[in-house]
Amino acid sequence: MAFHAVVAVLVPWALRRDRRLMAMVAALAPAVTVIWAVRQAGPVAAGDQIAEMVEWAPELGLVPQFRLDGLAWVLLVLIGAVGALVLVYSAWYFDEPPTLGIGVLVAFAGAMTGLVLADNLLVLYVFWELTTLCSYLLIGGFTPQDGEHRRAANQALVMTTGFGLVMLAGLIVLGQAAGTFTISVLLADPPRGGAVELALVLILLGAFAKSAQMPLHSWLPAAMVAPSPVSAYLHAAAMVQAGVYLVARLAPGFADAAVWRPLVITVGLVSLVVAGWHALWQDDLKRLLAYGTISQLGLLMVLCGAGTRTAALAGLALLLAHGLFKAPMFLAAGVVDHAYGTRQGSALHGVGQRMPHLGLAMAAAVASMVGIPPFLGFVAKEAALEAFAHGGWDLPVFAGVAAGSVFTVAYGIRFLQNAFGGDIGGSGEKPPSRRAFTWAYAKRVLAAEQQDRVSRLAWWPIAVLSAAGFFAGLAPGVWQDLIQPYADRLTATKPYELALWHGITLPLMTSVVILALGVAVYFKAPRALHERAERLPTAQGGYRVAVKALFLVAHRLTRRTQVGSLPAYLAVIVLTVLAIPGMGLVAGLTKETAPPRQEGGLFLWDNPVQAVLGLIVVAGAIAAMRVRRRLSAALLLGGVGYAMVGLFILHGAPDVALTSLIVETLTLIVLVFVLRRLPEEFPPRRRPRRLQAASGLVSAALGTFVAVFLAVMVLNRRDAPVGPEYVPEARDEGAGNVVDAILVDLRALDTSGEISVLAVAAVGVGALVLTGMHEGRFEHPEGTPRRGRWLAAPGRPPLGPPSVLLAVTARLLIPTILVFSVYLLVAGHVQPGGGFVGGLVAGSAFVLRYIAGGMRELAAALPVHPNVFIGGGLGLALLTGAAPWAVGGAFLESDTWEWTWPLLGHVKVPTGLFFDIGVYLLVLGLVLSLLRTLGTSLEEEPEREGGTR
Q1: Is residue 892 a contact partner of residue 752, using CB atoms and an 8 Å limit?
Q2: Rounded CA gap, 768 and 933, in Å?
Q3: Rounded distance, CA 494 to CA 123, Å?
Q4: How many CA atoms lie within 13 A of 112 on its CB side?
Q5: Residue 428 half-sphere exposure, CB side, CA atoms within 13 Å?
Q6: The whole model's pTM is what?
Q7: What contacts 475, CB < 8 A, 6 or more positions away?
Q8: Greatest CA separation found in the chain?
């Protein structure tokens, strides 16, 4: 999985100039997965389970656990083999394989690898959603300007993610009921009860949506707008198999649950039969294959969820066979579409004569799909029929499997006829007249003939996959040995082995009848029945109605709640606080209880200076509320903030005081920048007196609540404060600064999450604000003289005309500020400081430079995009946290390196310093991004207004 991640990032970046080679090299990641899996075939066949575990946050159940058994092995080989061949095919399919698309394909292969190997429910869900995200990018990312592609991507994301969240609720309930989230432990002693039954229903809903089972299937036909390599991988051999895999994974422990078999078998049979009927009437080759995939996945659901040994053998064999015959069919549809410019069967004629090798490969793939010996599909279909050939309650299932297989034969013939035959055959339609063959069409045919001679990159992946289904069927014993350890965990009705010949049996005779009926259905199926069925409500129509209703409700709701008034939003929040925790506080104070044990009382102040600073805070807040000028209000609020800095100093918190000081200063400067675009004075207040009185009453109530709440907290302390407990822990980490030790060592996971949020917010806000603006106009122009000036490239200062005094001050102070920021960074482990405050101080240096020279000066001072600092800092912090894994440590585990140097003496460098450097760079990038966003918008706006300021 780590190799997939590295290849997904580095190969598209390193080989972006040779994109065909990029796709070929990217195929190494899934290919290596296949090699590794083949090397593990012996232990897997022997019943051994190869397991690995990473202790990350075991108290939270976050323990990445991975396990390879027979079930995972089948999926792993399928994902790796098809993924490698699809990437090779992509080098031909795309004239210039898209860099992002190839990287996401590799990332998707890695996510699927993690999904099938995961031995933890929560880890499985993480990879589950990663595959959904990758599929969204692959469906809509190649042509994002196309509305149909965007709608298809959104539909796939909404349906699979929505029901994925439903599945997550089920996984959590199941894990809580079992007391563990480890899948192997949970299946060894499965829990029972009403909560478990509910959890299984929720989990199965997520699996049905992922594997496009009816009625949750509409996203899959819509997703056929994606390129053929994407369809062949995601929608034939990988993503849509995930739901089937989850059902197969949980079946050994829960197949005997009351809700399991009725739900799984009913949904599977309906999908098998109904989707097979729909596939028979599709003219578009990929939509035909999409409905055929839904049908085959329905059969896989039935087999993998039945909970019997024979059905499991059939299910896993068919799981492998399905990928080997359906993936090349999608790839072949891509070849035909690429060559002739259409996927419509009614517009394709004589393709088999022009591409006989491709037609032969497709005949082999269809033969495996319909169950003709000696293909692997025949072996799997024989086992599937045998699994339900025992009468009783299995008889309806047997009939449903047989009926669905009849439609499989019919639409398999239709695919061959549409893609490689002459006319449309049993559809009743007439082939287009000769007038329809325009000169442009003839030229496309000639071009296709020429292209077919050189498209080896397209031909070999199709040929290899189709041939694999043939040779795999010749050696069923190999798959029997690998699958048997998993299948033996399920109920065995009677002994059964995968084989090409079991004698003259009921399944064999049924297979012959199925083939005959399938041919008859293809030629004799009544189109009128299909046309009447088409007039019935469809799942796609249901999805559109649901989305339309959702938007309608959202519009009406937000029209009443999102009124565009910040005071109204604040009033709702305040009233909610007063109504819920406020009433709880009042109820607690009025309740008669024993007097709490107190460790002291309330004092007006510990130091008289606190009273002075408190008066400054109160006076500043009241004055800011009363003044009419915006700038005056901003300065008064800044005074309130600086008074709070003084309170922090008096309480012995220099780190917090220093950070607050820098934040207040930067906030005040930003406010001044923004106020330049607003009127000097606040608009006159026209609120009714009743509203003003209500606002004052609510404000007083909130202030009273906060004061009383703090007093109750102080007077009802029963345990010792937790803060002093960090002091010895910080000393154990070799840190003299407790605050920095908490941020970098003791609670570094929290810090990682916080800086990740900062990074996402900075990049997102910048992208939103700068959309449509011309950033290039602020870059430093070439050839501008730099000597003889205090600044490198002075432009238009944001606060007025250029000032020599300000330029001299900036030139002299900026180096000192930057050196001080580095000192704070390095000294933060033992003295007040750290990466966060150091980054803020460094950012303030560039703020000063921006004030002196504007955006052009800022670009000349640091001609690096702020996102480089943000991404680099976040990457360095996370890499520092993950580095201990390489030496067997825990995530974010810290250590100290010590050296003795001739001049410097004995030097100690904590590894947390590198984490702090990442925080430093990220915070600096955040400030630079703010300047770039704010400066660009402020300097762009006058031009939009005709050049006025």
Answers
A1: yes
A2: 9
A3: 36
A4: 34
A5: 10
A6: 0.76
A7: none
A8: 102
Q: Which token pair is 579?
A: 């109504």
Determine how many CB atoms are found less than 10 A away from the CB of residue 933: 20
* Cα 725 to Cα 722: distance, rounded to the nearest angstrom: 5
How close are the terminal C-alpha atoms of the chain, in Å? 55
Q: Could you tell me whether strands 896-901 and 905-910 are parallel, antiparallel, or unpaired per DSSP bridges? A: antiparallel
What is the token pair recorded at 922?
């990220």
Tokens 């039954």 belong to 197
d(CA 579, CA 598): 28
The average pLDDT across 774-794 equals: 52
Block residue for tokens 């000081």: 661
CA-based nearest residue to 284, from 411, 388, 105: 411
Sign of CA dihedral 244, 245, 247, 248: positive
pLDDT grade for 271, boundaries at 50, 70 and 90: very high
Q: What pLDDT, in 10s, does the model give residues 401-430?
A: 999 999 999 999 999 888 887 543 334 444
Task: Classify residue 600 as left (phi > 0), alpha (psi -120 to 50) or beta.
Answer: left
Give 3-state DSSP helix, strand, coil % of the chain, rounded to 5. 75, 5, 25
pLDDT-based confidence at residue 790 (cuts at 50, 70, 90) = low
Taking a C-beta distance cutoff of 8 angstroms, is the pair 377, 473 a contact? yes
Q: Which residues of 542-575 are buried (b: 16+ CB within 10 A; e: fewer)?
A: ebeeeeeeeeeeeeeeeeeeeeeeeeeeeeeebe
What is the helix (H) or strand (E) element at residue 67, kind and residue range?
strand 65-68
Nearest CA among 208, 21, 188 for reference residue 102: 21
pLDDT bucket at 793, cuts 50 / 70 / 90:
low
896 DSSP assignment: E
Q: What is the pLDDT of residue 500?
A: 87
The reported pLDDT for the residue numbered 166 is 94
Q: Quick: pLDDT tens for 613-672.
A: 999 999 999 998 888 888 899 999 999 999 999 999 988 888 889 889 999 998 888 888
Classify residue 693 as exposed, middle or buried by CB count within 10 Å of its CB (0-12, 13-18, 19+).
Answer: exposed
Q: What is the C-alpha separation between 90 and 102, in angstroms, rounded? A: 8
User: What sign has the CA pseudo-torsion 39, 130, 154, 276?
Assistant: positive
CB 263 within 8 A of CB 302: no
Q: How distant, in Å, are the alpha carbons of 70, 734, 846, 884 from that of 897?
A: 45, 11, 33, 13
Identify the pLDDT of residue 946: 41
Q: Are 115 and 124 in contact (CB under 8 A)?
A: yes
Number of Cβ atoms within 10 Å of the Cβ of 150? 16
pLDDT reported for residue 435: 39
Buried b vs exposed e over 627-644: b needs ≥16 C-beta within 10 Å? beebeebbbbbbbbbbbb
CA atoms within 13 A on the CB side of 264: 30
Rounded to whole angstroms, how far apart are CA atoms 413 and 524?
13
Residues 563 and 569: their CA atoms lie apart, in Å, by 9
Name which of 415, 428, 385 is nearest 403 in CA terms.
385
Give the phi and the psi of residue 604 in degrees, each rounded to 5. -65, -40
Q: Could you tell me the two tokens for 771? A: 């959309």
Residue 649 makes CB contacts below 8 A (sequence gap 6+) with 657
Residues comprising the chain, all counted: 949
Q: Is 193 helix (H, G, I), strand (E, B) or coil?
A: coil
Three-class DSSP category at 554: helix
DSSP state of 96: S
Q: What is the DSSP letter of 237?
A: I
Residue 599: phi and psi, rounded to 5, are -115, 50
Alpha helix segments (H runs only) across 355-505: 356-370, 376-387, 394-420, 439-452, 456-474, 476-487
Residue spans of alpha helices (H) in 782-909 = 804-827, 835-861, 866-882
